[in-house]
Specification:
This protein has 336 residues and is α/β, with parallel strands linked by helices. Helices cover 30% and strands 22% of the residues. Helix 5 (171-184) packs antiparallel against helix 6 (216-223).
Amino acid sequence: MYNIINSYLQSMSFLVELLAVLLSVTYCSGLCQDIDTKACELMLHQNPGLCNDPGLSSTACPRFCKKCPLVCHHCDATVQNFTDCNTTRTCQIGEQCMLHQLTSSGDGHHEYRMSCASVEMCDGTGLMPFGRRGLQSRDINVHCCTDDMCNHPACKRDIEILIQDSTDSSASQHIIQFLKDLVSHLDIGPTDNLVGLASIEVLVNRQFHLNSHTTKSDLLQALDRIKFNHRTNLVDVNDVTHFLNNELHQGSHNGDRPAYANAVLIIANHATKNTHSHLHHDDQNAILSSMTVINVGSGSNAQLDSLATDPQHVLSVTDYPSLSQSLSHVLALFCM
């Protein structure tokens, strides 16, 4: 028994020494990163005072406990498409992430500037003129926040995604990865964005509802479970419009929130069934903020394209691996 206990203590001593080495490497490298953020989440569940522990919070879980300088979206100039601001900056200690958002009272266009900012800047002192024409005829909103990458324009939507079940079996992995990348850029939750998913195999088949997965982690896991049959390339456009009218109409029992605008994304190839269909005129403005269609491969789907909000909401990629190229554009179109 003595030998067993001694062996156990030696093993524990080794693990403690190993953890100390890992902590030392992380600290001495100058990188303010968690050793394992998931482990930090589990530790917090077991120990609610984790981030008040000066040792663990500053060495094992510094970013999780917000002990690190913030990393913020950063642009040196104003941009009209916020997805064009695709660089980041590590702020100075004490700085916050700032978003300047402008709406022109003339033509209604938006401009954005994202950066690190001092407390004084966030309090409204020392603000520089915004945009190319200064402050005249402009509605400016300044928002500061204290989470990594939080200074990004966010519109909250009920998002319905319809994916065509292509006969190309290799398409599955690329579609799933694209959707996971898309969701990773969204805030998911009951008061943020909700995502519903359906597949199209001639007719539309519901995979999960808007309110089926209300956390990002749960939604990402659900995307890995999408069912593909790969039996046809056809789309019944009448059934697509019927599905959207039923699912997104106010008062639907499938998770649609009347106070939130709706956005639709359809990923399809060029084959189609049926020659003409459209959303009922009275319903279109009521249920949709934006509808985007991505055509994969050569050609286009005229019937599905006609459902898009406007030509700007019709995108084309050469093949399924190229879906990733449209990610930032789709995110921007959700908010237009």
